[in-house]
Amino acid sequence: MTAIQRELIYIWYYFQVQLEQIAGWWVLGMTAGSAVSVFARDRIHRIFQSLHGRKMGVLGIPAASILGIVSPLCMYGTIPIAASFSKSGIRDSWLAAFMMSSILLNPQLILYSGALGGKVLTVRIVSCFLCGSLGGLIIHFFCRNREFFSFNGFDEPKNKDTDPRLLIRYLKNLWRNIKATGPYFLIGVLLSALFQRYVPPEAMTALFGGNEAFGVLMAATIGVPLYACGGGTIPLLQQWLLDGMSIGSAASFMLTGPATKITNLGALKIVLGFWHFFLYLIYVIVFSLITGLITNLIV
C-alpha cells in the first residue's frame, strides 16, 4: 500500500464518521425546510404584510426580525419580496429587520445547526434576531426622513411551487433543495475530514479558542471568504467546536459568513447603493465581534 493510498483511507474514514454524525440533521433540514417553503411561505409573508395596517411603531421591528428568520427564502428571493412590501408602504426599518434576519437564518439552517448542540443553536437564533432588530432600530432612528433602500427594477419573484398536486409540489421543491445544497454539504464534510486528519486540535484551540478576543476576530475574518452555503459550514463548525473553538468565535463566524456571502453582497449592493452598502458591512463586522466577545463572557 502506497502512502497516498493510506492517506486516502484515513480521509475516507474521517469522511464516513463525520457524515454519519451530521447526515440526519441535513436530511431533517431539507425535508422540513421544503415543507415550510411549500406550505407556509405565503402565509408568513401575508402575516408580515398585515403588520402594515397596525399601529405597532418600533414594536414592528422585532416582529419583522422574527418573520425574516422563519421565512424560507434566500437573499435573491427575499429582495423582490421586500420590494413588493415596500411598494405597499411598509417602512424601511421593518424591511431592514426582515431582510437582515432572512440573510442570516432560515428554518432549514436552524435545523442544520441543531447538530452543533443546544447552546450554539440558541446563540445563533438569538444573535440573528438581535442583529436584525438592532439594524431595524438604527434605520428607524437615523434614517427616518429618507429612503434607505432602492428597489427599482425588482419584481416579485416567480413562484416555482405551483403544481396542483401537493405531494408532487413538495417533492419538486425538495429536489431543487437537494441540488442547491447537497454539493456544498458534501464539500463541507470533506473539508471537515481533512481538518481532522491534518490539523491538530491544539492549533484550532490556539486560533479560535485560547485567546478569546483574537479567536473571535479570526472567526469573523475567516467567515468572509469561507462561507458559501449554510449547510456546508455546519460540518466544519462541528469539528472546530470539538477541537476547541469557543462558542463566541462560532457565533461571530455564523454572523459574518452569511452576511458577507458573495451572492448576498451582489444583491444587497444593488438595493443599498455604495454608502449604505459600506455602512452595512461595518455594522455586520462590529456586531459580530461584539456578539462573539459577549457570548464568550456569558456562555
TrEMBL record:
It is a multi-pass membrane protein. It is found in: Cell membrane. Coiled coil: none annotated. Keywords: Cell membrane, Membrane, Transmembrane, Transmembrane helix. The keyword Nucleotide-binding does not apply. It holds the Pfam family ArsP_1. The keyword Protease does not apply. This is Permease. The lineage of its organism: Bacteria, Bacillati, Bacillota, Clostridia, Eubacteriales.
